[in-house]
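WP5 quarterly update. Target: DUF7705 domain-containing protein. Source organism: Prunus dulcis. Length: 374 aa.
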Amino acid sequence: MYHLDRTSLGMESKCVIHHRVNELDNNLRRPYTDPDFYAKEKELYLASLCEVQNSSDPWQFWMVMLKNGNFDKNTTLCPENGKPPLVYHNYSRLVSYGDRAVSLIGGFYGTYDLDADLSKGIGKNSYFSVSWQKNLGTGSWIFSHRLTTSSKYPWLMLYLRADATKGLNGGYHYDGRGIMRKLPVSPHFKVRLTLDVKRGGGSNSQFYLLDIGSCWKNNGKPCDGNVLTDVTRYSEMIINPETTSWCRPDNLVSCPPYHVTRTGDIIYRNETSRFPYSAYHLYCTPGNAEFLEKPYDICDPYSNPQAQELVQILPHPEWAVHGYPAKQGDGWVGDPRTWELDVGALSSQLYFYQLVFVFRNMKFASWSLLPCSC
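Structure tokens (predicted):
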């Protein structure tokens, strides 16, 4: 994190960077027996250093989340807790044109393969990189992501998150920090972004145009940090055209129990002549749900501290009315676009498990953009 000062020198002015987080802060290690407690406290400490006090409701930072998913209910690739990756940091610096600072750039990169020598190239190793650039004139941000898996690390995730400045963000069971001062509430919020996909990553790459992460209990109450009753809910638009629909008439277990049309009609998944199977990649239900409609599939219980629910959708005319891609290939490699997504309206059209007499207005605490090279 950094702070920009604009210093006047006679008739001219220049920008100066003050880094608010140094290597000592970054390298703080766990002094407690409870790593979850320490992770929370370190995030709050770093947020206090980065806090921008330009209003009565300050904000802290963008969040980049790198995850190793190589342990789940179906694999044992990691028989013990994994080791942290190698991370190299390019601290933010000003790029000038003549005497005028025009942008701010920085980033980090690294690998999970601890014996890798990246000075000799990536080779067959895992690799991740994130770079950022801020236009000092317009204030706009450009984030560029790259993610490469390896034989030892075939399931890696890299997210750009805009989290709420306080409260329980999706996927976390503690009070976090972020950049959004106002909590977006369905159905009244939109997201505007420009996305330029350079390389797709193959058929196994679940490349999200947008991933909304939220948290509420099955009875409709807000999450409170109790991992036994909290549920993280995700809605994810996959735009990789090589990703197929697992939701099919012969595989109803991967479909939500019903689909809500743009006009509010309900179509059950066994209505094979009407249900839009190709609009969904998969649906899975939270493991702590009490009254499930068969057939059902429980979401992976290992990749979140609490139960989770996933609604993964694909480009389809059903979603296009909300600004989302209408067909496979829209917005993919060679087709950069600026999207204005009516995320709130879409979320109110999606099925999420809940007990009877629960409010339908879903509260979203974070949203994430995946590999973006604009």
